[in-house]
Amino acid sequence: MTQMNFTDKTKVAIIANGKYQSKRVAAKLFAVLRDDDAFYLTKKNPDIVITIGGDGMLLSAFHMYDKYLDSVRFVGVHTGHLGFYTDYRDFEVDELLNILRSDKGEKIAYPILKVTTTLEDGRQFTSKALNEATIKRIEKTMVADVVINKVQFERFRGDGISVSTPTGSTAYNKSLGGAILHPTIEALQLTEISSLNNRVFRTIGSSIIIPKKDKIEIIPKRQGTYFLSVDNKTYTHRNVAKIEYEIDKKKINFVATPSHTSFWARVKDAFIGEFDS
Ligand code: NAP
Fold first, then answer.
1. Terminal C-alpha separation, the chain
2. pTM for this one?
3. What is the CATH number of the domain that holds 129?
4. Helix 20-34 and helix 93-101: axis angle, to 10°?
5. pLDDT tens, 118-132?
6. Which residues line ligand 1 (CB under 6 A)?
């Protein structure tokens, strides 16, 4: 029997959340892949990251590997309901193993968001978001100018602003009244969080879909402490001068699996369920 070269093997990382069911699935996958000559289990520079848990677990894994987006593909196993980033349920692990064994490297790519925060002292922070990034002012009403593609669009007053990716449109964005966007549409969505609208203060009120080429800038007009979220990570900064949002040059890649394409089935499963016809 000829042994496979280390370099011919597919490097796989398995990342699971703390749920009992997730740990069980992880243990099964680990045992099977460890004994399969075609795979090498490692958390360092993997070709494929298998997440076990829910969409939240996939978000965490995305942030663990967001420096390696050119080389890594993700595939998710959900240990609850069917998720948006997860193609397999916990009882479909054998199906996933078959897909991995016949994998030829095909991928499905979705846009992600690049967020650049500039503080008044000149410091700058850049991060990538898979779902969305939000800005809120902690002490009082947030007052900020919204600039879209260099057009001074409106002066916002309210709790804050969310900018979401297409795949993030079903998450916080949806709770804020934003639209659901098919993930193949390369656009960002700006959604208000409790805007103040009366005879004096005016914002557009509806969410706005912004194409790939346009940049969004939020320029806070009051000093104070700002609360920024990027997916499941949160930061507080004093005196934010500007936040810029644009579609990142890189995308997130998923293993192309037969069940990956049915976005509308996932939306129905998550929000509508079965109904009498
Ligand atoms: P969490 O508060 O523990 O869970 C948030 C929920 O959102 C989970 O049920 C998660 O699904 C689901 N979710 C995550 N991404 C989704 C997507 N793209 N489409 C539909 N549902 C999605 O926080 P977390 O698990 O760390 O996730 C952070 C995300 O929570 C943020 O990116 C934000 O979108 C969302 N969030 C929502 C609200 C709101 O709706 N009011 C408020 C704050 C944050 P699983 O159960 O499969 O993990």
1. 58
2. 0.95
3. 2.60.200.30
4. 30
5. 999 999 999 999 999
6. 54-56, 59, 80, 83-84, 131-132, 167-168, 170-172, 175, 231-232
